[in-house]
Amino acid sequence: MTATDHGSQAAHDPCGSSGHGARLLRLDEARSRILAEIVPVADVETIELRAALGRVLAGAVHSAVDVPAHPSSAMDGYACSARDLPGTGTAALQIVGVSWAGRPYAGEVRQGQCVRIMTGAVLPAATDTVVMQEHVRLEHSSAVVEAGHRAGQNVRAVGEDMRRGALAVAAGTLLQPAQLGLLASLGIGQLQVRRRLRVAIFSTGDELRPLGEALGPGQIYDSNRHALHGMLARLGVDVIDLGNVADTRDDTLRAFEAAAAEADAIVTSGGVSVGDADYVTETLRRYGQVGFWKVAIKPGKPIAFGRVGRAHFFGLPGNPVSAMVTFYQLVQPALRALQGVTDSDPPILLRATCESRLRKHPGRLEFQRGILSRSPSGAYSVRSAGHQGAATLLSMSDANCFIILPLEQGDVEPGSEVEVQPFAGLC
User: CA-to-CA distance for 192 and 201, rounded, in angstroms?
Assistant: First the structure.
């Protein structure tokens, strides 16, 4: 780590203020300031297509071929020439063969003839139209076609899906099954992707005990680190779990040194509130380039952001729900940017009728836990998931969405329309 004194730390403070007495930042302002400091990881690796789900494409991929490469049928039916389609009445077309997907019909198709064709099969020479099998009546060795069909119907043209040289997948795309299928259709078996992020987490506090141990007076289990591990794992990063760090100056310093040496980002919880006098805050002020913010959200007002060595640092509040809210709203977008994702999907937001009375004081953007449901008619409704205290994980566990209440919003009465953010859209 590079040591800096308190005065120089303020000069490198990414948030523009380093004290706990600073004004409350709006959530969008805090998010913008964080994202402005993020530079994606530069390291690239080549992997097999099957291993690329959830990875970030390092460079744009362009098609080397036309897809499809030949005119092909979009339906099961009968391939013929448009000149043989009847303008009125019917026409009986002699069936002279079959074109299968992967086994094209190689024979000649003359006037008044057709070929049985399967979906995806190449159109025989001299044909340009496919009549669906449902619209054909078979008589002996002929297909009887009625009037009303148009030239070129049910035919996929060369390059209809993609032209040679066209952009297939842009750099910075978070690869999903559809992109993998598209790339496979182009014959691409290997990809260059950005390497996985390495994110270090640890907890501090003598009151924290490992799972499975009996609790003594004033002791609690370390829930935040396990929640953080789960949220990070869903982002596809490599988690470096440094465990619970003893509440001493030397142990705290060693934890930060170990994290900064290995990780691209460090995420901790606790030690960033007004009045905190633990060794996390002291170590960050001495050795980090870190600002301490107050963000106008509830839960989750205090947060620290900056650098420790070469690693980005995110210090989240200690209350479990506060830590989860600030992770989803501030840390997750930053880690996506650090992964090199250039076009993240915006959070899913819905309007729903609130069935509960919600208490709220104006002044902060609130993320209350809710249970979202949908009626058979398609209308959304939401109710409170229970107690909204920042330390109450039960309501967070029961919830399936955040009810987002604007900065100046007061109490919400039943029947009011509110905005909700489903948890399913958060990762």
Answer: 28
Q: Are 228 and 328 in contact (CB under 8 A)?
A: no
Cβ(93)–Cβ(78) below 8 Å? yes
Contact 44, 192 (CB under 8 A): yes
- Find, among 241, 240, 251, 161, the residue nearest to 204 by Cα: 251
pLDDT of residue 273: 59
Angle between helices 249-262 and 279-287 (to 10 degrees): 50
Residue pair 35/334 in contact by the 8 Å Cβ criterion: yes
Q: Is 386 left (phi over 0), alpha (psi -120 to 50) or beta?
A: left
Please give the residue range of the domain that contains residue 334.
6-43+196-339
What is the SS3 assignment for 162?
strand
Q: What are phi and psi of 261, to 5 degrees?
A: -75, -30
The residue written with tokens 């079959």 in the block is: 98
pLDDT at 10: 35
- CA nearest to 79, candidates 43, 50, 116, 108: 116
**Rounded to two decimals, what is the model's pTM?**
0.84
| The one-letter amino acid at 170 | A
CA separation for the pair 111, 271 (Å, rounded)? 83
261 and 205 housed in the same domain = yes
Running DSSP on this structure, what letter comes out for residue 285?
Answer: H
Q: Do 315 and 359 lie in a common domain?
A: no
CATH number of the domain that residue 402 is part of: 2.40.340.10
Q: What is the DSSP code string of 157-221? A: PTTSSB-TT-EEE-TT-B--HHHHHHHHHTT--EEEEEPPPEEEEEEE-TTEE-TTSPP-TT-EE
- Parallel, antiparallel, or unpaired for β 77-80 and 72-73? unpaired
Q: Are 319 and 299 in contact (CB under 8 A)?
A: yes
Same domain for 206 and 310, yes or no, is yes
Contact 111, 83 (CB under 8 A): yes
User: What are the residue ranges in the chain where pLDDT is below 70?
Assistant: 1-22, 272-278
Do the domain assignments include residue 244?
yes
Q: What is the DSSP letter of 330?
A: I
> From CA 84, how far away is CA 102, in angstroms rounded?
26
In this structure, how many other beta carbons lie within 10 angstroms of the beta carbon of residue 199?
28
Would you state the pLDDT for residue 50?
96
